[in-house]
C-alpha cells in the first residue's frame, strides 16, 4: 500500500468529470451575476481562468464593483481562501514523492475544495498524471460556465438561476456524507464543524468575524477533536473498526 | 463598467494571493509527516472544511430558505446512497426548482 500510486491520467479525468459538471452550474451563476452588476464579460472569464475559486471570486467581484482598494482585495482573498493552505498541507502528504517542484507548482493552481477532496479520497498516493487529469475538466467547466453565464445568462429564467445556487453545496454534501456512514468519528467531526460555524454565525459579536476565518477556526477545532478521539492508522483509515 | 487597469490589477492581486496560499505548503512540505496526531488531523480536515462551508451558507444559496432546506435534505438522502457528485448536486437543484415553482403557484 505504501508504494502503490494512482497515476492514471484517464482515471483522473473520470474522477474530475462530476466536479467539472458541478462547476459549470456554479460558474454559470457567477458569470450571470458579474454581467448583471455591469462587470465586463471578458474579464469575468479571465477572473475564472486565473483564480479558479468560488467564494473568493464572488467576494472579489463585489469588492471591485464597490471600488475597494488593492490592499483590501489582497486581505479579503487571503482570509476567504486561507482554507486552501490547510488543504495543500493535507495534499502534500497525498502526492507521490516523484512529483517534482515544477509539477507541484502546476498542481497547486488547480487545488480547489472539490479537487482536493476527491484527490485525498484515493486510498493510494496520487501522481502527477492523475492530478492533471483530475484538474482538467473542473478547469474547463469553471471557465466555460463563466463564459456561458456572462454571454447568454440573461436568456434563462430567474427561477432556474436560483436553483443552480445550491449546486456547489450539493457537491459538498456528496463528498461528506458517504464517509460519515463508515466512520462515526467523521460524523462527529462534521457535526462539531457545523455546530461551531452556526454558533459563530448567530451569536452577537462573534457573527462579525469574517467567514473565511470562521471556517478555519471551525475546521481546525473539529479535525483536532477527531484526531484526539480516533487517530488514523498508517493506511490512512480510522484505527478502530466500528459497528 | 469598462475594462480598466483598476479591474486588471485587482484580478492580478486576486490570482496572486489565491495562488500563493495554494502553492506554499505544497511546495515546502515535501517530507512525509510522521506525527500521528497531525496525520489524523489532516485526515479529518476535508470533511470539517466542507461541512463548515455548507451549513448554514446553503440556507441562503437559493430564492427561499424552505427550498434550500428541502434541497439539503434531498442531497443528504441521495448522497447517503452514494450516487456520486453530479447526481447529488442535480437532485438538490431540481428540488429547489420544483419547490420554488410550487411556492409561486400556491
Description:
The complex is a heterodimer of chains A (243) and B (106). With 243 residues, chain A is mostly helical. In chain A, strands 1-2 form a two-stranded parallel ribbon. Chain A has two domains: 5-176, no CATH class; 183-243, no CATH class. Chain A is globular. In chain A, 72% of the residues lie in helices and 2% in strands. Chain A has helices at residues 9-36, 41-51, 54-65, 70-81, 83-92, 101-109, 113-120, 128-152, 158-164, 167-182, 184-202, 211-229; strands at 5-6, 125-126. The model of chain A has no long low-confidence stretch (mean pLDDT 88). The longest helix of chain A is centred in the first third of the chain and has 28 residues, at 9-36. Chain A is built from twelve helices and two strands, in the order βαααααααβααααα. By secondary structure, chain B is an all-alpha fold. The two termini of chain B are 40 Å apart. In chain B, helix 3 runs antiparallel to helix 4. Chain B has helices at residues 5-28, 36-54, 65-80, 85-105. Chain B contains four helices and no strands. Chain B folds into two domains: 1-30; 33-105, no CATH class.
Layout of SSEs?
The complex is a heterodimer of chains A (243) and B (106).
Chain A: E1 5-6, H1 9-36, H2 41-51, H3 54-65, H4 70-81, H5 83-92, H6 101-109, H7 113-120, E2 125-126, H8 128-152, H9 158-164, H10 167-182, H11 184-202, H12 211-229
Parallel strand pairs in A: 1-2
Chain B: H1 5-28, H2 36-54, H3 65-80, H4 85-105
Helix pairs in contact in B: 3-4
Amino acid at each position: 500500500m505504501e508504494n502503490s500510486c494512482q497515476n492514471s491520467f484517464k482515471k483522473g479525468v473520470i474522477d474530475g468529470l462530476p466536479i467539472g459538471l458541478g462547476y459549470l452550474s456554479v460558474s454559470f451563476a457567477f458569470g450571470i451575476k458579474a454581467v448583471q452588476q455591469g462587470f465586463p464579460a471578458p474579464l469575468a472569464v479571465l477572473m475564472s481562468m486565473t483564480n479558479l475559486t468560488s467564494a473568493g471570486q464572488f467576494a472579489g467581484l463585489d469588492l471591485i464593483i464597490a471600488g475597494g482598494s488593492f490592499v483590501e482585495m489582497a486581505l479579503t482573498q487571503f482570509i476567504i481562501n486561507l482554507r486552501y493552505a490547510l488543504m495543500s498541507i493535507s495534499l502534500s502528504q497525498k502526492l507521490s514523492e516523484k512529483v517534482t517542484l515544477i509539477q507541484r507548482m502546476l498542481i497547486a493552481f488547480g487545488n480547489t475544495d472539490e479537487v482536493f477532496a476527491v484527490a485525498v479520497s484515493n486510498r493510494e498516493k496520487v501522481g502527477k498524471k492523475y492530478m492533471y487529469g483530475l484538474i482538467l475538466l473542473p478547469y474547463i467547466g469553471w471557465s466555460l460556465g463563466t463564459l456561458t453565464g456572462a454571454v447568454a445568462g440573461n436568456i434563462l429564467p430567474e427561477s432556474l438561476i436560483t436553483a443552480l445556487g445550491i449546486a456547489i453545496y450539493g457537491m459538498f454534501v456528496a463528498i461528506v456524507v458517504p464517509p460519515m456512514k463508515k466512520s462515526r468519528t467523521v460524523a462527529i467531526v462534521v457535526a462539531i464543524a457545523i455546530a461551531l460555524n452556526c454558533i459563530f454565525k448567530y451569536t452577537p459579536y462573534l457573527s462579525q468575524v469574517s467567514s473565511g476565518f470562521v471556517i478555519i477556526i471551525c475546521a481546525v477545532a473539529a479535525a483536532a477533536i477527531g484526531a484526539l478521539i480516533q487517530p488514523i492508522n498508517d493506511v490512512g483509515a480510522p484505527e478502530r473498526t466500528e459497528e | 463598467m469598462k475594462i480598466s487597469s483598476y479591474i486588471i490589477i485587482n484580478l492580478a492581486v486576486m490570482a496572486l494571493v489565491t495562488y500563493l496560499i495554494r502553492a506554499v505548503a505544497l511546495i515546502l512540505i515535501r517530507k512525509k509527516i510522521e506525527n500521528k496526531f497531525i496525520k489524523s488531523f489532516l485526515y479529518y480536515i476535508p470533511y470539517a472544511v466542507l461541512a463548515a462551508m455548507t451549513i448554514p451558507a446553503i440556507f441562503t444559496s437559493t430564492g427561499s430558505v424552505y427550498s434550500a432546506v428541502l434541497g439539503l435534505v434531498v442531497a443528504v438522502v441521495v448522497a447517503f446512497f452514494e450516487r456520486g457528485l453530479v447526481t447529488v448536486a442535480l437532485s438538490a437543484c431540481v428540488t429547489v426548482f420544483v419547490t420554488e415553482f410550487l411556492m409561486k403557484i400556491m
